[in-house]
């Protein structure tokens, strides 16, 4: 196994961590805003406010790690993507800033503003949608070289069915991942009213998630046939992912083992995500850039891998501690004062 | 025409499932009021 594969695998792992943790966070923000509009705040408010906290801005560390790693390992990726992502990722950055600031205003501000809640709820759905554009662009066909510089074909990108199928998956999977997690969370907190409602949301969003994932593979067949063929070569990974999807839905349906249902969901998404990554190999951007084009020198790559593993060794215990002290501290989750967790 | 159907017909299925998801959530939420 060469360093380029180790590098991209480590980065893909960070990106997966970001997708799961950020999805839970974004979805919880949306459900919080939705409960204001649907008059279910009295049911969901307690559990979501226990979970939502500006502390979770720590998830952005995963995203920063990914970007820094991409530039460090693959300097030529910065040349291609740095130019063409200027507008799409700037939109994501503005949305992240809006969400982060309204998050803080809502949490620490004096008045309970519906507008603040609505803004960070909606921004939380638009951020994954705007970031997912990167995956669409990587499939090729949306970038043209003009005088040696990459130019993004905005109109083609906007009207591509592939773009919208990936955007749909990014939004519905955020709701599905988040609702499943919060169902398990409400179960731990023994908040049965919230659990009943969130379980219903999780089951409702499971259908659109699996259908839109299938739609992407179908659209890839039209858009990038060689990638579609590679996906078919490792069909068993996606089939296994489908099995874990069925396990999650079955456990939710039977109202049993909610935590196990969430772990099954993690396995489902990790199989699909790594299956997608493997089938994308070796391209970072069809057809211009592979992981071997302009890969950094061996000394830099080795140093980066060591630094990333050290960063991972620091980040994972930090998140674990956050989770133990707040998220899964049963007395904290149930809101019992004076029994630890404060 | 065939290409149009092959490309866009699956979208209709996905969008219908999203409408169904929202509708089932809203229906339940009305009961909660």
From TrEMBL, chain A:
Its main location: membrane. It is a multi-pass membrane protein. It comes from the Bacteria. InterPro entries: Cyt-d_oxidase_su2. The chain crosses the membrane at residues 12-34, 55-73, 79-98, 118-138, 158-182, 202-222, 234-253, 260-279, 299-327. The keyword Transmembrane applies. Keywords: Cell membrane, Membrane, Transmembrane, Transmembrane helix. GO terms for cellular component: plasma membrane. It is found in: Cell membrane. Pfam families: Cyt_bd_oxida_II (PF02322). Belongs to the cytochrome ubiquinol oxidase subunit 2 family. This is Cytochrome d ubiquinol oxidase subunit II. It comes from Filobacillus milosensis.
């Amino acid at each position: 196994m060469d360093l380029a594969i180790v590098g991209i695998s480590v980065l893909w792992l960070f990106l997966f961590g970001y997708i799961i943790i950020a999805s839970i966070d974004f979805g919880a923000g949306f459900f919080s805003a939705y409960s204001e509009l649907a008059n279910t705040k009295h049911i969901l408010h307690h559990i979501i406010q226990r979970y939502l906290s500006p502390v979770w801005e720590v998830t952005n560390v995963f995203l920063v790690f990914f970007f820094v790693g991409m530039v460090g390992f693959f300097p030529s990726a910065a040349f291609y993507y740095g130019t063409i992502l200027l507008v799409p990722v700037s939109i994501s950055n503005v949305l992240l800033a809006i969400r982060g600031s309204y998050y803080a205003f809502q949490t620490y501000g004096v008045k309970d503003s519906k507008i603040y809640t609505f803004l960070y709820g909606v921004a939380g759905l638009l951020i994954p949608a705007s970031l997912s554009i990167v995956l669409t662009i990587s499939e090729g066909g949306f970038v043209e070289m003009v005088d040696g510089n990459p130019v993004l074909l905005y109109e083609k990108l906007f009207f591509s069915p592939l773009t919208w199928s990936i955007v749909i998956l990014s939004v519905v999977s955020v709701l599905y991942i988040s609702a499943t997690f919060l169902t398990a969370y409400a179960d731990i907190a023994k908040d049965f009213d919230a659990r009943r409602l969130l379980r219903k949301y999780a089951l409702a969003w499971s259908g659109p998630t699996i259908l839109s994932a299938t739609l992407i593979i179908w659209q890839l067949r039209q858009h990038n046939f060689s990638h579609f063929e590679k996906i078919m070569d490792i069909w068993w990974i996606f089939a296994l992912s489908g099995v874990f999807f069925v396990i999650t839905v079955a456990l939710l349906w039977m109202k049993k083992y909610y935590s196990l249902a969430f772990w099954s969901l993690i396995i489902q998404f990790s199989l699909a995500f790594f299956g997608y990554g493997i089938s994308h190999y070796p391209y970072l951007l069809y057809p211009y850039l592979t992981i071997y084009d302009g890969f950094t020198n061996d000394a830099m790559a080795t140093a980066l891998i060591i630094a990333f593993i050290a960063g991972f060794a620091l980040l994972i215990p930090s998140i674990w501690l956050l989770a133990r002290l707040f998220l899964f501290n049963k007395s904290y989750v149930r809101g019992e004062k004076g029994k630890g967790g404060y | 025409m065939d290409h149009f159907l092959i490309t866009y017909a699956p979208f209709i299925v996905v969008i219908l499932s999203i409408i169904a998801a929202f509708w089932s959530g809203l229906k339940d939420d009305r009961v909660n009021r």
